[in-house]
Structure formats: structure tokens, C-alpha cells
């Protein structure tokens, strides 16, 4: 069974989570890039509004062929209680038919469950079956702490068993 981890990361924290996760569960990973500039305070405010309104954005790659994968992780940072626009756009452009899906949300302090719930609402009509989800707090975490927290979640949730 092949596993793919799809994610978007503005601050690099979700990227660190996804890459650590990929190492721990022996998965491929692919970062989705938002082609709109999301850097800086003003752009972050606009990005939060886009997330809240679930506005679409231009992403790279535009879509991902999941044919070779049985298990797909989808990860997003929490913006205004919603997934990042790049992840909403990706979900709307992918075929999850017959795929088992594990969702994860990163967050400064709270709101991750709302992100997971919204991703699930969008993936299930596209044929995906959510089998597990988890949240990771990234606020005030040093790199080493975040890596250790991801490894602990992998162990506690027994995530490698899903990729067998």
C-alpha cells in the first residue's frame, strides 16, 4: 500500500509536521504551493479572509493524481477556523474515490477540529473515506519539540499500521 501526504504550509510548521510524518510512516509527500503571495502581515489578513470565505486560489500543482496511492494524508494550517485556501482548492480538484484518508490540522492554539471537519465534509463527497484525524499545536514550539510531538502522535495513534 502506497501512502501520500499532501499539505500546504505558509510558516513552514505544517511542512515540518508533514515531512516528519512522511519519515515516520514511510510515505511520499507533496507540498501544495499557493501562487498568491501570502507572506507578510497584510497578506496574512487577506489570506485569513480568503480562508474564512473559502475563496479558491491558484495552486501548484493544480491537481494531484492519486491513482497509485491507497492512503492519503491531507494537512492544513488553521486560518480563521478554516483550512488554508490552497487545501480547499486542492480538495476540490482531486479524485479521492476509493481512498482512505487521514486528516491533520496544525494550529497556533485552537480551531484544528473545525479544519478537520471541513476537510472531511469536502473529501467524502469526492469518494474519500476518513479513517483517522489528528491535530498538532505548533504555537510557541521549537523545531525539536514539534518533531518530537509528531513522533509521539505517530506512536500514540499507531499510524504506521494504516499504511500496511
From TrEMBL:
Protein name: Flavodoxin
Organism: Methanobacterium subterraneum
Family matches, as PANTHER family: EXPORTED PROTEIN-RELATED, FLAVODOXIN-LIKE DOMAIN-CONTAINING PROTEIN
GO molecular function per UniProt: FMN binding
Domain of life of the source: Archaea
Residue stretches making up the Flavodoxin-like domain: 3-158
